[in-house]
Amino acid sequence: MTPPPRRPGGHGPRRALTEEEKRNRPKLTPALVKRILSWMKPYWMQFLLVLICITISGLLGVVPSLLTGKMIDEGLYAGNVPLLIQLAILSLLVLIGSSLVSMGEIYLTTWIGQHITYDMRNKMYAHLQKMDHRFYTSNLQGDIITRMTEDIGGVQAVLTTTFLNLFSNISTVVIVLITLLQKSWILALVGLVMAPFLVLPTRFVGQKRWKIAEATQAQRDKSNQILHETLSVSGQLLVKLFTNEEREYEAYRAVNKETTRLAIKERLMGIWFWRILHVLRGMGPLLIYVAAGILMYRVGNSNLTVGDVTVIVALMGRLYQPIDQLLNIQVDVIRSMALFTRIFEYFDLKPAVANPENGYAPQTVQGDIAFEEVSFAYTEEMPLLEKVSFRADAGKTVAIVGASGSGKSTLVNLIPRLFDAEQGAVLLDGVDVRKWDLTALRRQIASVTQETYLFNGTVRANLLYAKADATQEELEQACRDANIHDFIMTLPQGYDTEVGNRGFKLSGGEKQRISIARAILKDPKVLILDEATSSLDSISESLIQEAIGPLLKGRTSIVIAHRLTTILSADEILVMEHGKIVERGRHEDLVEKSGVYRDLYETQFRYALDDYERRRQEEI
Q: Which of 128-142, 144-158, 318-332, 508-522 has the highest mean pLDDT?
C-alpha cells in the first residue's frame, strides 16, 4: 500500500520529492482540477474575499516602503517635520490596516479549510459505512483511518498554505516588480541579479537537509513502534514473562542514539552555507547602493533620490522569498494532487453490497431461511462455498459443524449480506436477500460471535446499541435472560460501569453474556451463533448455554459450534467440508453413520457428550 504523502506547505527544510512520489505522481488533468474545485464551489464567495484580501495585503505591503522614501526625501532632507510626522502616522495606519487585512485572510482561509474538511470527513465516513465487509477484511485498518484523518486533515494545509500561498506569492511578486520598475529598472535588475545566488543554493541544501529529516523521522517511527509495542498492557506482560527487559532497552537505546545523531546532523547541515548565504543577502543592498551612487553622481541621473534607493532596497527584501517559494511550487502542487487523489480513490470505491432502490421491507417477517445452490469465493483461487442448499424454517434451529476453513462463517455471513453470493441465492421469507432493503433485512438478524466486541463505554451504552430506547426494565430483563444481571449489579456503578477498551475489564464469558443480552434486546427473527462458546471455560459455557436456550425460542437459528452441547437439540445438523454440505440430519442419525460427523464426534464431541450425559443424570 502506498504510504500517504506528507502534508504540503509546511515549514522546515526544503522538501524534495521522494523517488516513490516521483514514480506515483498523479496526472494534473482538467477532470481532477474540476473535481477539487467542486469542493470549493460552495464557498466561492469566501474564496473571492480571500483573493481580495491577498491583493489588498500585497498593495499595502509596498506602501510603508514607499512612505519611507517620501519621509527621507520630503521630510528629512527637506526639513519638513510636520510632513514627516504625518507620513509616519500614515505608515503606522497602513501597517495596522495591513495586519487587520492579514487577520481577516487568516480567519477566512481557516474557516474555508475547516468547513471543506468537515464536509469531506462527513462524506467519507458515510461512504465507508456503506462499504461491504470484504472491504474491511482486505484493507489495512491503519490505511483506512489514515485516509479519514491524515489525508483529509492535510486538505486544510493544501487550502490554507499551498493554493493560497501560490496566489499570495504571485500577487506579491507582480506588485513589487511593478513598483521596482517604476522607481528604477536599472536598480531593479541589479537586485534581481542576486536572486539566483540566493534561491538556487537554498534549494540544493534544503533538499539535502530534507533527506536527513526523512531519515530522522523514520528512526522516530521505529522508536514509536517500540514504545507502542512494549509499553502497552499486553506488550509489557509479554516482555516480563519472557524476561526481555534488557533486550528491549538495548533496542530502544540503539534507535534513540541514531535518532539523536541524525537530528544533530540535520540541525547543523549546511551551517557554513547559511553563514555564506547571510553574507550574500547582505551584498544585495550593497550592490544597489553602489549602482545607485554611480547613477546619481557619475551618470547624473537626477530623477533618482536617496528615498527611492531606500525603497528599492526594502522592496528587494520582500521579493526573494516569494520567488523562492514559486520556484518550488511544483513540489507542493504534486503533493497536494497526490493527497486529493488518495481521497478520491476511496470516494470512487463502489460497495460490492449495494442497497437496492425501493428494497423489500415488509411489516411482518416469518424468518424462513433458504440457501439455493449458493457458491462464493474471495478470489478465483480460493473457492469457499460450492452449490450449498438447505432450509431453516421459521422457529427451527440448524446447526453447522465442520473443520476450520470449511466455510461455516462465510455461509452465515451471507444471510445479513456482509457478502453476496456469487452464484445461487439466499432467501429470507422466499425473497432474495439482495432484493431486501439492507436496514430492514439486518434489523431481523442478530449475531453472537466468538470474538465479542464491546465499545469503550458503559455496560448500559453497549446494551442500548441494540435498542436505543430500551427502558431500564427491558435492560434488566434481557440481562436476566442472559444470566448476567446479577454480575452487573456487583460492579461498582452497576449498568453505568465502564467496560474498558473492547471490554477489557470483563472476562470472556461476561462479555459473551452481555453480547447475548444485546441480541435479546434486538429481538430478531433470525439468530446467528458463530462459535459463541468455543473459547470459554466449562462454567462460563454452562451459564451461556442457559442464556442461549431462551434466545433460541421462537426464532430461526443458525448455530455454528465446536462443542456438541450447543447443537444436540438442533432440528437439523449440517456437516461441511471444503465448502460443501457432505452430511445432514439429526445427531442420533448422523452418529450412526461412518462419516465426517462420526469422526468429529469421536475426536471432538465424545468427552463433551459424556459430560453432558453425566450432568443430566445428576439433575435427574
A: 508-522
Last residue of some domain: 522, 541, 571?
A: 522
Rounded to an integer, what distance in angstroms lies between the CA atom of residue 16 and that of residue 13? 9
Q: Are 102 and 110 in contact (CB under 8 A)?
A: no
Q: Domain for residue 414, yes or no?
A: yes
- Rounded CA separation 242/236 (Å): 10
Q: Answer yes or no: do 425 and 377 share one domain.
A: yes
Q: Are 96 and 140 in contact (CB under 8 A)?
A: no
Residue 321 in grid coordinates? 522569498
Single pTM value for the model: 0.68
Place of cell 456438541: 564
Are both 506 and 571 inside the same structural domain? no
pLDDT in tens, 50-74: 889 988 988 888 888 888 888 888 8
Which has more pLDDT, 188 or 476? 476
Residue 46 predicted with pLDDT over 50: yes
Residues 415 and 430 in one domain: yes
Q: How far apart are CA 114 and CA 310, in angstroms?
A: 41
Question: What is the domain extent for residue 608?
Answer: 369-444+524-619
Q: Kindly state whether residues 537 and 399 are assigned to the same domain.
A: yes
For the record, the C-alpha cell of 434 comes out as: 439482495
Q: How far apart are CA 241 and CA 239, in angstroms?
A: 6
Q: Per the domain annotation, does 315 fall within a domain?
A: no
How far apart are the C-alpha atoms of 528 and 524, rounded to whole Å?
10
Whether residues 539 and 591 fall in one domain: yes
Using alpha carbons only, give the angle 193, 196, 201 rounded to the nearest 5 degrees. Answer: 145
Same domain, 374 and 495: no
Rounded distance between C-alpha atoms, residue 578 and residue 382, angstroms: 11
Provide the pLDDT confidence category of residue 426 given band limits of 50, 70 and 90: very high
3-state secondary structure 491-560: CCCHHHCECCHHHCCCCHHHHHHHHHHHHHHHCCCEEEEECCCCCCCHHHHHHHHHHHHHHHCCCEEEEE
Question: What's the rounded Cα separation, in Å, for the pair 511 and 145?
Answer: 26
pLDDT greater than 90 at residue 26: no
Shared domain check, 556 and 415: yes
Structural domain count, the chain: 2
What CATH number did the domain enclosing 611 receive?
A: 3.40.50.300
Dihedral, CA atoms, 526, 530, 532, 535, nearest 10 degrees? 180
Please list the residues that pair with 593 across neighbouring strands: none
pLDDT digits (tens, 9 = 90+) for 128-165: 888 877 788 777 777 788 778 778 877 877 777 777 77
pLDDT band, residue 565 (cuts 50/70/90)? low
Residues 410 and 559 placed together within one structural domain of the fold: yes
HSE at residue 210, side-chain half, CA atoms within 13 A, is 17
Q: Which three cell numbers stand for residue 341?
A: 487523489
Instruction: Give the DSSP letter of residue 7.
Output: P
Q: Which of 492, 522, 552 is the last residue of a domain?
A: 522
Could you give the strand order of the β-sheet that contains 572-577, starting from the edge strand earlier in sequence? 445-449, 526-530, 556-560, 397-402, 572-577, 580-585
Distance (Å, whole) CA 516 – CA 527: 10
Mean pLDDT within 176-183: 85
CA angle 539, 540, 542 (to 5 degrees): 65
What confidence tens digit (pLDDT) does each residue in 67-99 have? 888 888 888 888 888 888 898 899 899 989 988
